[in-house]
Amino acid sequence: MDIQELHRIILELIPDCKLWFLDGKNSDGKIVSNPNIGYGHRTMQYADGKTKEFYRIGISANTAGISVYILGIDDKTYLSRTFGDKIGKASITGYCIKFKALKEIHIKTLEAAIRYGYEQNP
User: Any long-range contacts for 44-52 (C-beta under 8 Å, 24+ apart)?
Assistant: First the structure.
């Protein structure tokens, strides 16, 4: 139920975003990640010059809880420095906020992180 609530919250924050529903399989049908939902749109550019269309914000449920991906932030310490001491029981990496359940985190802080990632992400 938390993933459904989080989906609702994100759609309230960014109602007109493009939605991505990914099953976690690569082009060969091999499972390479957990299924996830993405929000928004960005063009990623690789070192070789190739580009790929992808989402800005993503969510995924797994056995450990929920992961929220905030992609495209250049400063890999920004999320933890800005939201780490306010979010509650979550771990934060350069682009991911992980937690067991919504009740264990401060939802307004998570919303602020999502909003930042969406708005600061070209």
Answer: 44/71, 44/72
Burial status of residue 68 (CB atoms within 10 A of its CB: 0-12, 13-18, 19 or more): buried
Handedness of CA 41, 60, 14, 18 (dihedral sign): positive
Reported as half-sphere exposure (CB side, CA atoms, 13 A), residue 106 has a value of: 10
Angle at 104 between CA 102 and CA 106, to 5 degrees: 75
Q: What is the pTM of this model?
A: 0.90
Encode the chain (122 residues) as per-residue pLDDT tens digits. Answer: 899 999 999 999 999 999 999 998 888 889 888 899 999 999 888 889 999 899 999 999 988 899 999 998 889 999 999 999 999 999 999 999 999 999 999 999 999 999 999 988 55
